[in-house]
Amino acid sequence: MKLNDTPDEIRPAATDAGLTIAGKTYASRLLVGTGKYRDFDETRAAVDASGTGIVTVTIRRVNIGQHANEPSLLDAVPPDRFTILPNTGGCFNAKDAVYTLQLARELLDGHKLCKLEVLGDEKTLFPNMPETLKAAEALVKDGFEVMVYCSDDPIQARILEDIGCVAVMPLASLIGSGMGILNPWNLSLIIEQARVPVIVDAGVGTASDAAIAMELGCDGVLMNTAIAHAREPVRMARAMRLAVQAGREAFLAGRMPRRFAASPSSPMAGRIA
Question: What is the pTM of this model?
Fold first, then answer.
């Protein structure tokens, strides 16, 4: 065997075909938000650096045409290049969330893919699961393809999947907290049972958080504050891009088992006395 040859038994057994949501495949597994930047120019630069194919837009806070005399985000992040994911951030009940996404569908020429987010209160921004379930059911019946922000509860995630949501998006920790993944065990339970993509949403603070989410087996990571509030947002966007790729590669490669004893890197047998 030549020095650079790789034996069949150690060649990667899995390849990454990309992130598929509602029948469409995206090369990047990183989804990014468009809020909290200094201006639309910085937004676009960070989006480009992230390599994402999906950008979220909070309809209640960002203009995508509902205010005709104001600058539109769609001029900086055009729908012919990126998949726009309208979301219901700022909604605290099912009625408002459904109305907001119906408005977004009109503004985006019948666009069906959306992110549902129904919050419980303004302090924690934790998901209101009873209202989330109600809104999810109504939106699915209305023909929307619903990606849904939810608690890291495997039972709730299963119910949302059974309703017909195309992706479940459990929080890693509170929105905008940067605390990282506080309960990897619950995420693992959700991943184990899910038949739709599992995308970590909320709480990522830095690149290692994103890598850990992917190493756990998540299908993707969505973030906004971690990039927009970094000292250098564009550089952090690049870091997140690399972290998601590295975490996914590590997951596909399969980590070594954890041991409670040392294991020498070189064999002990046959060593020179």
Answer: 0.88
